[in-house]
Amino acid sequence: MNGEGNSGPVFADPITADLMLSVNGDEHPVTVDTRETLLDTLREHLDLIGAKKGCDHGQCGACTVLVDGRRVKSCLTLTVTVDDREITTVEGLAVDGALHPMQAAFVERDAFQCGYCTPGQLCSAVAMVREVADGWPSAVTADVSGPVALDDDEIRERMSGNLCRCGAYVNIVAAIRQVGA
Amino acid sequence: MRPFAYERAADVRSAVAACAAGMADGAGAVYLGGGTNLVDLMRLGVVSPGVLVDVTRLPFDGVEETAGGGLLIGAAMRNSDLAAHPLVRRRYPMLTQAVVAGASGQVRNMATVGGNLLQRTRCSYFQDVTKPCNKRAPGSGCPARNGDHRNLAVIGQSESCVATHPSDMAVPLAALGAIVHIEGPGGSRKVPMPGLHRLPGDTPERDTVLEPGDLITAVELPPLPFAVRSRYRKVRDRASFAFAVVSVAAALDVEDGMVRDCRIALGGVAHVPWRAERAESALRGSPATEAAFAQAADEELAQATPLPHNAFKVPLARNVVVRTLLDLVEAS
């Protein structure tokens, strides 16, 4: 106690902020520590536990959510930075109880095993298909000044920010191809 | 993680003032872009600022055409928007290729142009606060020289630091001589690449020539018509989402089988994005042949002083330069 022994660094008191977060169309008043990530706020304050904590370093993609429609790593996003954004989590993909086409394709194609990475895969895939529709090139696009077609190489490259330790990649690619190609 | 105050800047003046105020308090103030590197480093305890000044809402998130055919890229522009911009793709394809070769789709959506330039090395000792590191804790030593340095620098390093600069985007910017626009407590100035970054020498704690409180507001791409034929080629340990072992950005202007002009920069080999000026000089006016490309690459890499576990990078860099230049010849 009191900074003796192995108690680690002694910090000043936390600094908090009162925010209104817009998540899946609902407004949520929250008081957060400025250090808090969007991932922790979603899971610990808003009971939205779809987004998962895998590596907590931005490497595995399990925490992927959409901010203003774009896929981001919620483990590297400070909550105080997104109070003026529209956040969509995997819980917000379905509309009126009907699965999003990407969710239906994942079920149909058996695109998961343990399911831990799946919410991140789904959010990432939904946004990725939109990026392709917007003509964004990738590292495997032969001519970056030309149009883009979503073949399997493009899917694999564009989904490289989402790891699946079960190795369900083959069926994940098939599910995304079914929706996006 | 140390608690920090968060401030969102609405304009450059207030951003620079907020950062200066935080520094004057002794709190340690830094600018926050996408946070993809900074937040991770804060979590690891590598950096612990007391004030974060969020500069992502500053009105510098687009691309403007400059007189003469260049582009002015706002520093708050997201990496994915930069890569997808039609004028960047058409005029400077190596820049788009480099950006999309870096990180992952999610990270590129977050990362800003300014932040990309200022990301820190991924040297494992720098990121591990339980280890000595002259860059993180000056004077504590460099375990990498006798330890894990397989992916560290082979050129321009010093006794005190063998870190590499991890950015892909910075490599074509160095090749282009992109001009970095800076606003700071001391006013505004412009620094041409690759001069933004510095070699480690005996002060590796300084990655760049920026002074405390300096804010990158834009990156200007000079007109370079022959950059329409340019290419970024990256070698890494896996097919995607990995830092470069070696990379090259090159643009080639060939007429009647002779090199009229060229631009070459290397990534993954130095503390800075390495502009290959010796190779460029050797190539101007020479035939556009494999033999000439190899000789030019050898002249550049004669400066290399690799360590035991990264000596493979020297022939790798040579081969990647040659292959990339040959690809450009074949495409022209």
UniProtKB/TrEMBL annotation, chain A:
<dbReference type="InterPro" id="IPR036884">
    <property type="entry name" value="2Fe-2S-bd_dom_sf"/>
</dbReference>
<dbReference type="InterPro" id="IPR052914">
    <property type="entry name" value="Aldehyde_Oxdr_Iron-Sulfur"/>
</dbReference>
<dbReference type="InterPro" id="IPR012675">
    <property type="entry name" value="Beta-grasp_dom_sf"/>
</dbReference>
<keyword id="KW-0408">Iron</keyword>
<keyword id="KW-0479">Metal-binding</keyword>
<keyword id="KW-0411">Iron-sulfur</keyword>
<keyword id="KW-0001">2Fe-2S</keyword>
<keyword id="KW-0560">Oxidoreductase</keyword>
<dbReference type="InterPro" id="IPR036010">
    <property type="entry name" value="2Fe-2S_ferredoxin-like_sf"/>
</dbReference>
<comment type="pathway">
    <text>Alkaloid degradation; nicotine degradation.</text>
</comment>
<dbReference type="InterPro" id="IPR001041">
    <property type="entry name" value="2Fe-2S_ferredoxin-type"/>
</dbReference>
<dbReference type="Pfam" id="PF01799">
    <property type="entry name" value="Fer2_2"/>
</dbReference>
<dbReference type="InterPro" id="IPR002888">
    <property type="entry name" value="2Fe-2S-bd"/>
</dbReference>
<dbReference type="GO" id="GO:0016903">
    <property type="term" value="F:oxidoreductase activity, acting on the aldehyde or oxo group of donors"/>
</dbReference>
<feature type="domain" description="2Fe-2S ferredoxin-type">
    <location>
        <begin position="17"/>
        <end position="93"/>
    </location>
</feature>
<dbReference type="Pfam" id="PF00111">
    <property type="entry name" value="Fer2"/>
</dbReference>
<dbReference type="InterPro" id="IPR006058">
    <property type="entry name" value="2Fe2S_fd_BS"/>
</dbReference>
<protein>
    <recommendedName>
        <fullName>2Fe-2S ferredoxin-type domain-containing protein</fullName>
    </recommendedName>
</protein>
<dbReference type="GO" id="GO:0051537">
    <property type="term" value="F:2 iron, 2 sulfur cluster binding"/>
</dbReference>
<dbReference type="GO" id="GO:0046872">
    <property type="term" value="F:metal ion binding"/>
</dbReference>
TrEMBL record, chain B:
<dbReference type="InterPro" id="IPR005107">
    <property type="entry name" value="CO_DH_flav_C"/>
</dbReference>
<dbReference type="InterPro" id="IPR002346">
    <property type="entry name" value="Mopterin_DH_FAD-bd"/>
</dbReference>
<dbReference type="Pfam" id="PF03450">
    <property type="entry name" value="CO_deh_flav_C"/>
</dbReference>
<dbReference type="InterPro" id="IPR016167">
    <property type="entry name" value="FAD-bd_PCMH_sub1"/>
</dbReference>
<dbReference type="InterPro" id="IPR016166">
    <property type="entry name" value="FAD-bd_PCMH"/>
</dbReference>
<dbReference type="GO" id="GO:0016491">
    <property type="term" value="F:oxidoreductase activity"/>
</dbReference>
<dbReference type="Pfam" id="PF00941">
    <property type="entry name" value="FAD_binding_5"/>
</dbReference>
<dbReference type="GO" id="GO:0071949">
    <property type="term" value="F:FAD binding"/>
</dbReference>
<dbReference type="InterPro" id="IPR016169">
    <property type="entry name" value="FAD-bd_PCMH_sub2"/>
</dbReference>
<dbReference type="InterPro" id="IPR051312">
    <property type="entry name" value="Diverse_Substr_Oxidored"/>
</dbReference>
<dbReference type="InterPro" id="IPR036318">
    <property type="entry name" value="FAD-bd_PCMH-like_sf"/>
</dbReference>
<dbReference type="InterPro" id="IPR036683">
    <property type="entry name" value="CO_DH_flav_C_dom_sf"/>
</dbReference>
<keyword id="KW-0560">Oxidoreductase</keyword>
<feature type="domain" description="FAD-binding PCMH-type">
    <location>
        <begin position="1"/>
        <end position="226"/>
    </location>
</feature>
<protein>
    <submittedName>
        <fullName>Oxidoreductase</fullName>
    </submittedName>
</protein>
